[in-house]
Amino acid sequence: MNSVNDRTRDIGPFVPGPDDDMLICRCEEITKGEIRQAVHDGMWTLTEIRRYLRTGMGLCQGQTCSKLVKGIVARELGVSPAELEPATSRVPMRPIEMRVFANEADSNKEGE
Amino acid sequence: MKRYDLIVVGAGPSGLSAAIEAAKKGLKVVVFDENEKPGGQLFKQIHKFFGSKEHRAKVRGFVIGQQLLDEADEAGVKVVLNATVIGLYQDKEVVVKLGGEVVHYKGDAVIIATGAAENMVTFPGWTLPGVIGAGAAQTMMNLHGVLPGKRVLMLGSGNVGLVVSFQLEQCGCEVVALVDAAPRVGGYGVHAAKVARTGVPFYLSHTIVEAEGDECVTGVTIAEVDSSFKFIPGTEKHFDVDTICLAVGLSPMSQLLKMAGCKMEDNPKRGGQVPISDSYGQTSVPGIFVAGDVSGIEEASSAMIEGRMAGNVAAEYLGYIEKDALKEELDTLDKALDGLRQGMFAPSNRGKLIEKTDEGIEVSQSLLKNGYIADEEIERFPGVVRKVGVHPVIECTQNIPCNPCQDACKKGCISIGKNITSLPIVVDGSECINCGMCVANCSGQAIFLVDEDKGDGSAEITLPYEFLPLPEEGTKGFGLGRDGKVVCEAVVTKCRSSKAFDKTHLLTIKVPKEYAMKARFFKVS
Amino acid sequence: MKTSAEVVIVGGGIIGCATAYYLAKRGVDVIVLEGSDHIGNGGSSRNGGGVRQSGRDVRELPLVMYGIKNLWPTLSEELEVDCEYHQDGNLRLGKNDKHKAILTKLANNAKGVGLDVRMIDGDEVRQINPYLSREVTCASWCPTDGHANPLTTTLGFYKMARRLGVTFISGEPVKELRVIRGKIRKVITPNNVYEGENVLVAAGLDSREILTTVGIDIPMTNSLLECLVTEAQPHMFDQMLGTAEADFYGHQTKHGSFVFGGSSGLERYNKDNGMVSNSAMTAPCICRGIMKYFPDLADAKIVRTWAGWMDASQDGVPALGTVDEIPGLFVACAFNGHGFGIAPAVGDQLAELIVTGKTKVDLGDLHYDRYKAKI
Amino acid sequence: MAERIKEHPILGDIKKGEPVKFTFDGKEVMGYEGEPIAAALKAAGLMVHRYTKKEHKPRGIFCAIGRCTDCVMVVDGVPNVRTCITPLTAGMEVKTQYGVSDKPFEEQ
Question: Nearest Cβ partner of B145 from D5, D10, D65?
């Protein structure tokens, strides 16, 4: 995406909302208010939000909340959600036990 | 490293279709799926599909799933289950978790057909046990035979919300309300109508205020919303429920593609983050293709065609077929896909308010607001005619891509014509023999056989019935209107079952003749 | 948009953010230009979180010791963010005589500059961390080492710097520096030209290409470092860990997850596809490495892996300080994969250097012009 | 609360494995071999799988297909097991998960 983003742009003050205590990230138990406050702290990309608050860093890796977080951040910044790039998808797609990840099959054998 | 011509990720409708097509062209194909059972969502779809013959219309989803599996087997496709693809690395390296080990594979081509994930919506209490996704309800009841709950509130009136509501009732749950914040029903009118006539109240322009309960859901409050989706005070309604089911749309599950470095875009028309691809699934990375919901949310029927397209394109990419042969295949598939993308629910019409059918008939506003067609609206549609003797009454009122009814009638009573989305009409001068094939074959359960005047002051109505227990002949009860409310007393005069009906039973009820055009469901007293 | 300032910092990683913060605290007007879309998107967010003195080259030890003594203990309060700083020691583990020799040499060097670090045997190792396997026979033990959360620390510096008035602009990859009338002046991106009386280049590996435009070359190469993180586990231990042969390094976080870095041996030869991506063979290798030391973690599930390009210099220590030949130009790069723990000290001392021309800690050994031919 | 579907109008009998016993927090529960642990618990009317780490709030089945990870429990001593996709076997010890432990918070 890479677009010039001046972080001094005025997005207005943080105004507490009635649903700020709504849980958004189910895994890490992050609320809407925390996400909104993070935007006002300067976290303007979904990647920064994620690194700052841990949204989408829990067991499900953001599969449940990423769209919700995106909507909240977009609204706070006054941009369309489509303009926000989702955080990077990372291996593994599902949680995998260390003992299994460590156990690579012989790549020459007939693997199933 | 172990190498295949083609690695397909996801054994749903699109993945299997792609694999079959490619294997038929000579490619060595493997399909990985993380689930214990193949078929993706097909095995949870127990309703009859729409479309025409080429789209496997009037066949139930799980049967299509089995058909695809058999075809895949016949074509020599290797389907590996319980196989979680944990990553798609550079150089088309697919790493799969299989039992207690990870295996690295290379594909000369890779087709990603990972489908979609459910969207969620928040409200106080949305994390309580008992608040579940609609997909979870389907999984519990249709795969594992466990009731998702006893009293359920469904949020979402798209096809998923409607279909799952009906499925919940089929397995014995009570759906206490179907709620949607939108002002109009989002899914097919026929799906809505079959839910509404069983007595499920629809609350459009409503949404959930709060789910109640300490340890799990014990109740829910909904309220009406205004045009900017704000609650209107004083409109709250409370229901005692143990389950709240969320069916608020799907998003493409495209993480693997992003991981592989495919260029992505956020495309609201396709349901979210999707790879940038041409109309046959080629992404920005040569040799990586997509098919099905992962490239844009649609129906299983279109996913199957997209899969076949991608399978053929992969075959040409690897030199198993020539460009000419590919073009021929794609021309046919383009036509089939075009057929499905017509009508009011076409992707190009998403979000548009359609007031008239292609035939110029005003769409039923009651259907959109309440889930059923009002009595005073029904007779303006061409499938609904009054006649002497038994005749079909076709309550199909929206332009959807579906035509099994016209093939079902051997006597030529029903016609849709060339355009698959046209409204069915009862052919003038045709003679109904009361065989019931049209009733059983209508995927929307929108056809009834009516004898308006039996001569003794009564009328007989034959309706599709997919519930247990089946009422026996002589069972007394009530006729319910399209709105699910009791309109008259009724008695069962016949209950027909047949292999050709494919588990849609034909219940014939006798009602006072003034209710011939009003009673559309039967409830035992 | 603001395009000129007293100091323009090229690079919005932890070095850039920390320096901006400490400059702003001293009342200096600063612009930070970040090439990617995200603040702290390079090594700052892709490391194992070590806040370590032991195991370091003596040339950079005084600086990191300064930071651990003066800056880290109060950093969370100062940045109003939980940096998750733990000062519970660092165990650098060994399994055989060869390892013992490596560790002993490192420990002796560090002792020479006044660091409390000593060699301990396997039993003492397991008294400190009972989860370690019997295979571990020795370790160096530095009780004043620790670890912190690189994500919140980096973004914390950013947040506070921004609050103090620093201008941050992301999506601004610097392509060229220009000397004007004998002094550094212009900082050029594809979209804009910025001007500063002083310019600090702290852009990790990209620093080399940027500095080349004013004729300065800092020999660096890249190397792909990879990490993995587990699901949250019950609390086990608080030490920072490493090994003599760098099979893996890492710690358990406040969240409960374990963050481990490691290598496959091929990291200098890995490639990317336009975005930094993991090699398929590294994470399994790291897992095998960890399980030899921590058999109990075999059932822990990996939820995420990531990779980052490291800026590796020939001698393994950073290039830091004034570029004498170009007035107004400063560098801070080549942190060789251990720039996180040292970052607050670097930021603080660079700020002091830019403002006063002097530093509390001598940076002489890290001078940009120190690279010489071998014969 | 919930129960099993005895006969389904479309699917008929839903095929199940052998009936087996397992324990939930030490109490004996019946289920069918090979079905997801979560299905067996649901059929037995057990809704709460875990209490969250920060807020100690109850969670149960949410997606039922192994994605959301809300249904995790401590199974045979291993925490964070996704019960909706983990097949039940005879004698399994299934425990409520508190944070990431099978010990209630007041004992942690």
Answer: D5
Measured between CB atoms, does D51 come within 8 Å of chain B? no
**Closest CA–CA distance from residue B1 to any residue of chain A (Å):** 5
Backbone angles phi, psi at C192, to 5 degrees: -145, 165
CATH number at residue D102: 3.10.20.440
Q: What is the DSSP string of C185-246?
A: EEEE-SS-EEEEEEEEE--GGGHHHHHHTTT----EEEEEEEEEEEPP-------EEEETT-
Q: How far apart are CA C19 and CA C12, in angstroms?
A: 10
> D touches which chains (3+ CB pairs under 8 A)?
A, B, C
Who contacts B24 (Cβ-Cβ below 8 Å, separation ≥6)? B75
- State the CB neighbour count (10 A cutoff) for residue C162: 21
Task: Map residue C95 onto helix, strand or coil.
Answer: coil
Residue A85's region, left for phi above 0, alpha for psi from -120 to 50, else beta, is beta
Domain-embedded: residue D14: no
User: Domains of chain B, with CATH numbers?
Assistant: 2-117+250-340 (3.50.50.60), 120-246 (3.50.50.60), 376-524 (no CATH)
| pLDDT tens digit sequence for C266-280 | 888 888 877 788 999
* Residue D31, domain member (yes or no): yes
Chain centroid offset of residue A84 CA: 11
CB atoms within 10 A of CB B394: 26
Say if residues C24 and C5 touch (Cβ distance below 8 Å): no
| Matching residue, tokens 């005619």 | B385
**What six digits make up the tokens of D99?**
């944070």
Q: Which fold has domain A23-102?
A: Arc Repressor Mutant, subunit A (1.10.10)
Sequence spans of domains, chain A: 23-102
Asked if residue D10 is part of any domain, the answer here is no
Nearest to C206 by CA among C177, C167, C230, C184: C177
User: Residue-wise pLDDT tens for chain C (375 aa)?
Assistant: 999 999 999 999 999 999 999 999 999 999 999 999 999 999 999 999 999 999 899 999 999 999 999 999 999 999 999 999 999 999 999 999 999 999 999 999 999 989 999 999 999 999 999 999 999 999 999 999 999 999 999 999 999 999 999 999 999 999 999 999 999 999 999 999 999 999 999 999 999 999 999 999 999 999 899 999 999 999 999 999 999 987 889 999 999 999 999 988 888 888 887 778 899 999 999 999 999 999 999 999 999 999 999 999 989 999 999 999 999 999 999 999 999 999 999 999 999 999 999 999 999 999 999 998 888
Within-domain flag for D83:
yes
Residues C11 and C41: beta-carbon distance below 8 Å: no
Sketch out chain C's domains with CATH numbers.
4-49+151-219+315-366 (3.50.50.60), 90-143 (no CATH), 220-311 (3.30.9.10)
Domain interval for residue D57: 19-107
D residues 1..40 contacting B (CB < 8 A): 1-5, 7-11, 14, 16, 35-36, 39
Q: Are strands B272-275 and B264-267 parallel, antiparallel or unpaired?
A: antiparallel
- Count: domains in chain D: 1
Dihedrals phi, psi of D14, to nearest 5 degrees: -90, 120
* Burial of C316: CB neighbours in 10 Å, binned 0-12, 13-18, 19+: middle
Supply the ipTM of this predicted assembly.
0.95
Q: Pseudo-torsion of CA B63, B64, B70, B72, nearest 10°? A: -160
List CB contacts (< 8 A) between A94 and chain D: 66
Give chains near B: 3+ CB pairs under 8 A. A, C, D
Each residue's pLDDT tens digit, B397-440: 999 999 999 999 999 999 998 899 999 999 998 999 999 999 99
Cα R_g (chain C), whole angstroms: 20
Q: What is the DSSP letter of B397?
A: -
